[in-house]
Amino acid sequence: QVQLVESGGGLVQPGGSLRLSCTASGFTWAHFAIGWFRQAPLKEREAVACISKDGGSSYVVDSVKNRFTISRDNTKNTVYLQMNSLKFEDSAVYYCAAAYVDGVVTTSLIEYSYWGQGLQVTVSS
Fold first, then answer.
1. Strand, coil or helix: what is 1?
2. Sign of the four-CA dihedral 98, 100, 105, 111
3. Is pLDDT at 100 greater than 90 in this prediction?
4. Is 32 exposed, middle or buried (0-12, 13-18, 19+ CB in 10 A)?
5. What is the spatial distance between Cα 60 and Cα 36, in angstroms, rounded to a whole number?
6. For residues 35 and 51, what is the distance between their CA atoms, to the nearest angstrom?
7. Distance (Å, rounded) from C-alpha 66 to C-alpha 102?
8. Separation between Cα atoms, residue 83 and residue 92, nearest integer Å
9. Strand pairing partners for 70?
10. Which listed site, 19, 20, 113, 121, has its alpha carbon 20 to 30 Å from 82?
11. How many CB atoms lie within 10 A of CB 69?
């Protein structure tokens, strides 16, 4: 059974930090690129950060550059999203997802086959 389980979300004040984790099981982790997406109320789901299957390439959306970092540990089937200097506008439900793509980073939602259940990140004072 394929599972992507996210953890690490919650409530944080502006300027604070969170680290999201996503641990996978039920598929060959090392063959999949991984992405973090988010969706705020009344907004479309967007790619926040994505990483290739070997971790050699990554992408972060402009709005989080220099604040968010994506990484993966293929020995633990886990991907991380380190989020620093959080802003009100970072509040959303965050999802991790897995895409079977070869050696590239993809931000296209349709290429992501497996999705986690999502977790809430709320930035509020």
1. coil
2. negative
3. yes
4. buried
5. 9
6. 6
7. 27
8. 13
9. 81
10. 113
11. 17
